[in-house]
């Protein structure tokens, strides 16, 4: 899907699993001045300075073998519960339509690009990419009649494959999202930069239930599944997590939310097919956790294909997910005195 922006330094992998003592690199593109904090180099595009840092803890399960062991430690019949649904749950601010899919040929191209560019090492399963901050002066910002998406002369700092993906998402979602939500996700003249996080899941891996960091990311999150589907669980929180307190659970998992849900709080299991899109805004972004259980297959209600219990087992394959989020002011500073800014 084209070559990477020549003005952008290569993205730097983060390791979600403790497989080795390999180091972590991170490049953050910002139009403002260079800022440093604790062995982390934040550089302006086209500069080639970098430092190494050990990877931080993360939300993801440790390794495919360990996760599969956990997932298979009990008979699946004891843990499956009711089958997950393909229907969008009644969560305010959550938008999901399983019939709206990324075109198959383009999805294959995105997966091929990401695997060949970012995941050539078996020790890497997460990549974070950062857009350049938009121009501070209104006079230098794109006009209302000039969309910023996928414009090479403006250059977001994201590779062309991802800017094309954003354009594709904007077109697909324009038919289903309320105009105000579509504008939130795809403004003509963005006032903030985006972060794109690319995760590679093997069967048996999952992600701790969490609310995305409140001090780092704004409203409006877009997630796309590639190569495999999975069940994502949504759980309502009795109260909205406070900024800085949604990041570490009892096991030391960053970004996880303390258990606030009583047994009578709503829980929804939603199956996200490959090439599907999910959007979280408002309550869905701030008041509901989302997570993926560590399993090698999912129990899903598929109309016309269910067994006598009402569901069908669907094996997981290697899944690539790409999530786009808006960065809040100061989000380019990672580590130091603000551990809640760590991903």
Automatic annotation (TrEMBL):
Sample GO molecular function, one term: 2-oxoglutarate-dependent dioxygenase activity
GO biological process, one term: fatty acid metabolic process
Biased composition (Low complexity): 56-66
GO cellular component, one term: mitochondrial matrix
Region (Disordered): 1-22, 43-67, 131-157
Gene3D superfamilies: Alpha-ketoglutarate-dependent dioxygenase AlkB-like
One Pfam family named in its UniProt record: 2OG-FeII_Oxy_2
Domain Fe2OG dioxygenase: 192-328
Highest rank taxon of the organism: Eukaryota
Protein name as it appears in the record: Fe2OG dioxygenase domain-containing protein
Species, as recorded: Moniliophthora roreri (Frosty pod rot fungus)
């Amino acid at each position: 899907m084209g070559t990477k922006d020549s003005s952008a330094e290569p993205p730097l992998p983060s390791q979600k699993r403790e497989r080795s003592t390999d180091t972590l690199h991170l490049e953050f593109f910002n139009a403002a001045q260079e800022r440093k904090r604790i062995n982390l180099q934040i550089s302006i595009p086209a500069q080639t300075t970098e430092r190494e840092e050990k990877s931080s803890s993360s939300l993801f399960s440790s390794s495919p073998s360990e996760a599969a062991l956990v997932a298979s430690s009990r008979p699946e019949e004891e843990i499956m519960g009711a089958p997950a649904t393909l229907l969008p749950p009644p969560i305010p601010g959550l938008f999901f339509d399983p019939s709206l899919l990324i075109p198959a040929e383009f999805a294959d191209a995105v997966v091929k690009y990401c695997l060949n560019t970012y995941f050539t090492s078996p020790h890497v399963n997460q990549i974070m990419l950062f857009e350049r901050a938009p121009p501070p002066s209104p006079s230098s910002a794109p006009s209302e009649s000039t969309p910023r998406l996928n414009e090479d002369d403006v250059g977001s700092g994201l590779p062309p494959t991802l800017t094309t993906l954003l354009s594709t998402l904007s077109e697909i979602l324009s038919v289903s999202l309320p105009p105000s939500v579509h504008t939130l996700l795809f403004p003509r003249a963005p006032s903030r930069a985006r972060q794109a996080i690319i995760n590679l899941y093997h069967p048996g891996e999952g992600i701790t239930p969490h609310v995305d960091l409140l001090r780092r990311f704004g409203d409006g999150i877009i997630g796309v599944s590639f190569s495999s589907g999975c069940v994502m669980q949504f759980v309502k929180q009795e109260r909205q997590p406070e900024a800085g307190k949604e990041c570490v659970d009892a096991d030391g998992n960053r970004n996880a939310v303390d258990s606030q849900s009583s047994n009578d709080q709503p829980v929804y299991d939603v199956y996200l097919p490959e090439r599907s899109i999910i959007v979280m805004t408002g309550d869905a972004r701030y008041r509901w956790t989302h997570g993926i259980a560590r399993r090698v297959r999912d129990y899903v209600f598929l109309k016309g294909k269910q067994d006598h219990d009402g569901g069908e087992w669907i094996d997981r394959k290697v899944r690539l997910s790409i999530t786009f989020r808006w960065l809040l002011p100061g989000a380019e500073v990672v580590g130091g005195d603000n551990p809640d800014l760590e991903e």
